[in-house]
Design goal:
- There is one protein chain.
- Strand 4 and strand 5 form a beta hairpin.
- Helix 5 runs antiparallel to helix 6.
- It contains ten helices and eight strands.
- The strands form two sheets. A six-stranded mixed beta sheet has the order 1-3-2-6-8-7, sandwiched between helices.
- It is an alpha/beta fold and 357 residues long.
- The two termini are 19 Å apart.
């Protein structure tokens, strides 16, 4: 169920979107400079006239911030109009894959076995172990999922003040899922390498009953009455959701409605975006893995900056049901983890056909 108190009108949304594209949330970062010759004829007065048509109103400061972006977009439109298009050319929104996956339910097999590693003497070392290493500790009884979950929850609480990577801590759910994993281990039930492993989700995935804010103030109290498919698949695999992680507002950049998410290796620098919290939390050892989404660099860019392994799957390989759409023909869902092997393990659980998508 959507919390109607969090909804805004289409008119207000138009203003938020225009200001967001102009980068107004970061003073001084609006697109004030454009290529030489790009539609410099657009003026502040022109913007005022357009506001009347759209039924919105900006302040003078907002108009100055938006002006550069408007000029740049018009210049891009002018360049596109110069490209000859035959009437038989299909629009780029047509997606026609050739053939179909060999399997719709289990298309990926990962040959990875739990490690025979002994539990580290220094507790801090747990933060940087791989998924197979943590899976080995769980299966050998050297640590419980509840212990492991409490360890990562404590790290999230301790370091979020510096990184600004957590929007919602799902502590109650995490401890419930961890206890379930421990009971299953005790009965000899083995669901795979992610069983009992804590993780985080970018906060554009719906998980009831928690808020799904999309990183934007107008949606700060938004809730849905369904779960994202990726959460359902990870839950079925026994993984433990510890947090809904920060993202740039409406999946752009690394600034959300409370703060900028920081790079754990350089706190004076943003973590890049838009999967900002997912990359920062894994990079800082606050979680073994997290999920991000990418339209045009939103997994790759923060992963590179935060020194973790991000995997951007082929379009359509992982279900987007229950996730905010930024570009319905470009959005991809993928894992962010400590190693490439870890990313492959997570991907093997996520991918496959979903009738809801």
């Amino acid at each position: 169920m959507i919390d109607e108190s969090a909804l805004i009108s289409r008119k207000e949304m138009l203003k938020v979107a225009v200001l967001g594209m102009a980068g107004l949330s970061l003073p001084g970062t609006a697109m004030a400079t454009v290529q030489a010759g790009a539609n410099q004829g657009i003026s502040i007065e022109d913007l005022k006239a357009c506001e009347k048509i759209a039924g919105i109103e900006f302040s003078d400061e907002e108009r100055r911030a938006v002006l550069g972006a408007v000029r740049a977009q018009l210049a891009e439109a002018e360049s596109l109009r110069k490209v000859p298009v035959d009437y038989r050319d299909e629009p780029p929104t047509v997606f026609s894959p050739i053939g179909r996956p060999r399997s719709l339910t289990a298309p990926v097999s990962v040959d990875s076995r739990p490690s025979g590693l002994s539990r580290p003497k220094a507790e801090l070392d747990l933060a940087y172990l791989s998924i197979p290493e943590l899976a080995g500790l769980l299966r050998s009884g050297q640590i419980t999922s509840v212990e492991l979950t409490k360890f990562f929850l404590a790290r999230l609480k301790k370091y979020d003040a510096k990184l600004n990577c957590v929007i919602t801590l799902t502590e109650e759910l995490a401890l419930t899922e961890a206890a379930r994993a421990d009971r299953e281990f005790a009965r000899g039930v083995d669901k795979g390498l992610l069983q009992g492993i804590p993780y985080g989700l970018k906060d554009l995935f719906a998980v009831k009953p928690y808020k799904t804010t999309w990183g934007a103030a107008p949606y700060e109290n938004q809730k849905f009455d369904h779960n994202a498919t990726v959460y359902e698949r990870l839950s079925a695999a026994g993984a433990v959701l510890c947090a809904k992680l920060s993202m740039g507002a409406l999946a752009m950049n690394d600034v959300w409605f409370k703060a900028r998410t920081n790079n754990p290796y350089n706190l004076n620098q943003g973590s890049s975006g838009s999967s900002a919290g997912s990359a920062a939390s894994v990079g800082a050892g606050l979680l073994p893995f997290a999920l991000g989404t990418e339209t045009l660099g939103s997994i790759m860019s923060p992963s590179s900056r935060c020194r973790v392994s991000g995997f951007r799957p082929t379009y359509g390989r992982v279900s987007r049901y229950g996730a905010m759409g930024l570009s319905y023909t470009m959005d991809k869902v993928g894992p962010i983890a400590r190693t490439i092997e870890d990313a492959a393990i997570v991907f093997s659980v996520l991918c496959g056909y979903d009738p809801h998508d």
